Amino acid sequence: MTGVALLGLLLATAGGLAYGRQRFPVAFWLLFGLPLAWGRFLSTYGSTMVACGLAVPPSRARALAGWAVGRREARPVPPRIRRLGGSLTGLRVRLRLPGGLEPADVTAASSRLRHAWGVHAVHVVELGPGVVELRMTGYDVLRDVRMPRRLPSGPMVVPVALRDDGTAFVRNYREIPHALTLGANQSGKSVYQRNLIMNLARLPVALVGIDCKGGVEQIPYAARLSALATDREQAAELLDALVGEMEHRFALLKECQRTALDSPDEEVASDIWGLPAYVRPVPVVVLVDEVAELFLSATKKDEERRDRMVANLIRLAQRARAVGIYLEICGQRFGVELGKGAATLRSQLSGRVVHRVNKQTAEVGLGDISSEATTAATAIARDRVGVAVAGDASGGWSHIRTPLVSIAETAAVCRAHAHLVPDLPALDRHRPSARGEEDGPAEPGPFPRPRSGPE
Ligand SMILES: Nc1ncnc2c1ncn2[C@@H]1O[C@H](COP(=O)(O)OP(=O)(O)OP(=O)(O)O)[C@@H](O)[C@H]1O
Fold first, then answer.
1. Cα-to-centroid distance, 219 and ligand 1 (Å)
2. Which residues are listed for ATP binding in this entry (predicted)?
3. 299, exposed or middle or buried, with CB in 10 Å at 0-12, 13-18, 19+?
4. 223 is an annotated ligand-binding site residue
């Protein structure tokens, strides 16, 4: 009888733990996972590193010292632990690699380390020459996204999503000025853009929207937009105005450089960030939703407009970084099928975020970054909406997922920060209020009745 009761208790405990692990991964990790993982890590560190091929033969001096204390065999030397830390998502261990090991060796062994220490994943980040950080996650942090409490900040730094190593994925416009976001239908592109808009809305920047699907994606955020184009005609005019603004800013930059050259104390600025705050123009982020719409052309007149828009986009992508105009381009695809100019424009967009896509689009988005990243993007499961592969020109990539935010939440943040819409006379004509779009889309009219066909 006692045995049956004990067995019942054991099964109930195991069931409770399994349920708790699924429902409350953070609490489970802190209560059970963290102490267990520490215990396992500290007690098996040396032997695990040797078993995973991450230890080197000892130096002659060390071997001699071992022999002097009566050790017959010289033990291999694992990387020295520099720093240990725990967090809400996992463990962090900083290692100094001994001569003969390189970060790629540790990366290659990450899957073996993960199994040895019983953690969800081990990510290896190179911090400097010979120093790596092991970021171990105790559970799948992308299942229920919670952004870290302490986020990186800076003049044009925007946290957008969570990386699979538990750190924040940020868009740093001064480091990576232009980016491309790709994804199939219902893969999470709009939620990604929403996170961007919501975080950019709080900064002193001008936001410009180009949404040629009638503005369905961007009209809700009109209160915070300095300009909005909802069809191709408006987009063409808006891009002309943006190129005009870029030229005007270059003229200002040159003027400031001339003054600086004349006065020996002044530093010569190479971009707007080197200018004193009182003359520095406000940064502009141009958000293009569904870029393929801009590349469409049905008639000869359309074709001219399309070529003008594409040429303007390429000009902005090639030169506008120095004057604080940044491009954030989004679409379902961006291959050669879009025609002339697509490949040139794409090559200028160094930030890449690719949601679930087919093999061809993954190649387009990540092929020039890394073949592993391309494979990872095609492997994103259909039920992992919002998960994407983020890569940059340095060849680094990681899985990311945005927090799920609604249109209403984003629109509320935009309304609350409407006072931050800067004064930009060049874009006045394109302001949503000038077009009567500030209050959201107009009421839809009645649906047309289907024409009755022959009985
Ligand atoms: N990060 C996320 N976390 C959880 N769910 C998400 C996330 N991103 C998107 N989703 C879910 O997927 C749905 C589709 O996302 P979204 O509208 O962003 O896709 P999309 O790629 O823009 O689609 P479309 O191309 O059809 O406009 C959302 O309504 C939301 O329920």
1. 18
2. 183-190
3. exposed
4. no
CB-CB contact of 319 with 246 (8 Å): yes
Whether 371 has a binding-site annotation, put simply, is no
DSSP code, position 56: B
Whether 166 is in the pocket of ligand 1, judged by its Cβ within 6 Å, is: no
Question: What's the total number of domains in the chain?
Answer: 2
Asked whether residue 388 is domain-assigned, the answer is: yes
Tens digit of pLDDT for each residue in 131-163? 999 999 988 999 889 898 888 888 899 999 999
Q: Is the domain of 228 the same as that of 368?
A: yes
As a whole number of angstroms, the distance between CA 215 and CA 221 comes to: 10
Rounded to whole angstroms, the Cα distance separating 197 from 186 reads: 19
Predicted confidence (pLDDT) at residue 34 exceeds the cutoff of 50? yes
Do residues 103 and 178 both lie within one domain?
no
Q: Which of 79, 107, 137 is the last residue of a domain?
A: 137
Could you tell me if 401 and 389 are in contact, meaning their C-beta atoms sit under 8 angstroms apart?
no
CA 363 to ligand 1 centroid distance, Å:
22
Clarify whether residues 117 and 23 are in a common domain: yes
Q: Are residues 26 and 67 in the same domain?
A: yes
168: CA distance to ligand 1 center in Å? 20
3-state secondary structure of 446: coil
Are 191 and 104 in a shared domain? no
For residues 185 and 316, membership in a common domain is answered with yes
Convert the pLDDT of each residue in 282-329 to its tens digit.
999 999 999 999 988 777 778 889 999 999 999 999 999 999 999 999
Tokens of 391: 């890569």
End-to-end CA distance of the chain, in Å? 78
Short-list 188, 140, 193, 185, CA closest to 164: 140
Structure letter (DSSP) for residue 77: B
d(CA 293, CA 437): 20
Is 67 in a helix, a strand, or coil? helix
Question: Mean pLDDT over all residues of the chain?
Answer: 86
CATH of residue 34's domain is 3.30.980
Q: Give the Å distances, CA to CA, from 313 to 288, 334, 351.
A: 10, 14, 16
Whether residue 186 is contained in a domain is answered as: yes
Query: Is residue 339 marked as binding?
Result: no
